[in-house]
Design the sequence.
C-alpha cells in the first residue's frame, strides 16, 4: 500500500497508523485520512508564522462561532452563555460524571458503546449499568429493558447520538421516550453529540430540546474534532441551558483545567465553522461512496457478512457471526494485514462484530476489502 498522506501520518505519529505494523491497513480510529479544509490549513499556517505562542484569550467570538454553527445546522437554539469551551468531549463527560453523581452512583448507558464510556464510568468510581441495543430492521433502543436497568442509585443516563459504533440516529419518538424516562426517574442526561454533523437522511435532533425537563437536565458535548479532522488540536464545547448547572460546570471545569484551550485549536474554530461547509459536504459524499462500496463488495462476492445501513456517523458495524472464527480480529490483522476495531471492546455481547471507519481515500477502502476477500478465500471461510 502506497499513499503519501498516510506515510506522513505515520511519520508524524498518527496513532491510527502507529498502533499497527507498517504493512497493515488500519481503519480502526475515528479520524480521517484526508487533508483538512483549505480554510483551516491557512489559519494554522498564518498563526504559526507569528513567532510567539503564549497564553491566548478565549474571547466570546469562539462561543459565538459554535452557537452560530449549532443553530444554523441543527436548530439547537443556543446563545453564547449556553456554551462552555473544553479541551475534549471525553474530558467533559468525565467532569459531568463527577459533577452530577457521587462515587458508587450508577451511570446507565447502552452497548455496544464507545469503549471510553465504560472506562470513564469505572475510573470515576461509578457503577456501570448497561442496556443492549437490539437489531430489528435497524438498531434500536429496547426502552423496556433500558428502564428496567434503572436502580435507586442511578443518577445519569449517558448517551451517544449519533451512536458510535452502530451509526444509529435517534428519531423524534425515541427522543421523546428518553425524555420521559429521564424525567420519571429524575436522571441527568449527558450526551455525546460529536458525530451530529454526520447525519445523512434525517435531521439531528438535540436531546435537550425534547422537553422543559431535558432543557434543564442535559449536558450536550460537541466538537469540531470529528467534523473537521482536527482531533489533535483539543477543542470542544459543552452546551448547558440551565444557568445554575452551567455555573457549576464552569467552576468545576476550571478546577480540573479543561477550560484552557490550545491556541491552534482556537485558531481553527472560525474558519472551520464559517468557511468549511463545502469541504464537509465533500467528505459526507465520500462517506456515502465508501459505504456503498463496502455494501456492494459484500454482495458481489457473497461474503458471509451483514450490516445495517444507519443514518449517521462514518462507521460501519459489521456482523461476522457466520464466519465462526475465534480470535478473528487478531487473525485478520496477522494474516490479511487489515485492522478493524474489535467488537468485544464495545460490549461483551458483541464479540462477533467489527467496526470499520470509512473516512479514507476510496483506493484504501478498496485494497482493504480485497485483502479481506483474499484472506477469507485462503482460510476457506467462503
Sequence:
Amino acid at each position: 500500500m502506497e499513499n503519501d498522506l498516510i506515510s506522513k501520518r505515520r511519520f508524524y505519529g498518527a496513532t491510527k497508523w502507529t498502533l499497527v505494523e507498517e504493512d497493515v491497513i488500519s481503519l480502526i480510529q475515528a479520524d480521517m485520512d484526508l487533508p483538512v479544509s483549505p480554510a483551516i490549513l491557512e489559519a494554522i499556517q498564518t498563526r504559526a508564522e507569528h513567532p510567539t505562542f503564549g497564553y491566548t484569550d478565549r474571547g466570546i467570538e469562539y462561543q459565538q462561532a459554535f452557537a452560530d454553527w449549532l443553530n444554523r445546522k441543527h436548530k439547537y437554539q443556543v446563545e453564547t452563555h449556553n456554551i462552555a469551551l473544553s479541551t475534549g468531549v471525553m474530558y467533559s463527560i468525565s467532569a459531568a460524571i463527577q459533577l452530577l453523581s457521587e462515587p458508587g452512583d450508577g451511570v446507565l448507558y447502552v452497548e455496544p458503546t464507545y469503549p471510553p464510556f465504560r472506562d470513564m464510568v469505572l475510573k470515576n468510581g461509578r457503577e456501570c449499568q448497561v442496556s443492549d441495543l437490539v437489531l430489528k430492521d435497524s438498531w434500536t433502543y429496547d426502552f423496556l429493558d433500558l428502564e428496567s436497568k434503572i436502580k435507586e442509585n442511578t443518577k445519569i443516563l449517558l448517551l451517544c447520538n449519533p451512536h458510535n459504533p452502530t451509526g444509529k440516529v435517534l428519531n423524534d419518538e425515541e427522543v421523546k421516550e428518553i425524555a420521559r424516562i429521564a424525567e420519571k426517574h429524575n436522571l441527568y442526561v449527558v450526551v455525546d453529540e460529536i458525530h451530529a454533523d454526520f447525519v445523512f437522511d434525517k435531521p439531528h435532533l438535540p436531546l435537550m430540546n425534547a422537553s422543559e425537563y431535558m432543557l434543564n437536565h442535559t449536558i450536550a458535548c460537541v466538537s469540531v474534532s470529528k467534523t473537521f479532522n482536527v482531533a489533535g488540536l483539543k477543542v470542544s464545547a459543552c452546551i448547558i441551558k440551565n444557568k445554575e448547572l452551567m455555573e457549576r460546570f464552569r467552576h468545576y471545569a476550571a478546577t480540573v483545567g479543561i477550560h484552557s484551550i490550545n491556541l491552534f485549536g482556537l485558531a481553527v474554530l472560525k474558519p472551520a465553522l464559517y468557511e468549511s461547509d463545502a469541504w464537509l459536504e465533500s467528505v459526507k459524499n465520500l462517506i456515502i461512496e465508501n459505504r456503498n462500496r463496502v455494501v456492494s463488495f459484500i454482495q458481489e462476492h457473497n461474503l458471509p457478512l451483514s450490516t445495517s445501513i444507519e443514518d449517521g456517523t462514518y462507521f460501519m458495524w459489521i456482523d461476522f457471526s457466520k464466519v465462526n472464527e475465534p480470535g478473528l480480529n487478531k487473525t485478520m490483522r496477522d494474516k490479511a494485514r487489515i485492522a478493524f476495531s474489535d467488537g468485544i471492546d464495545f460490549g461483551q455481547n458483541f464479540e462477533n462484530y467489527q467496526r470499520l471507519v470509512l473516512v479514507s481515500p476510496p483506493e484504501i477502502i478498496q485494497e482493504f476489502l480485497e485483502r479481506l476477500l483474499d484472506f477469507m478465500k485462503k482460510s476457506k471461510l467462503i
In short: The chain has a mean pLDDT of 96. Residues 277-300 form the longest helix (24 residues). The radius of gyration is 21 Å.
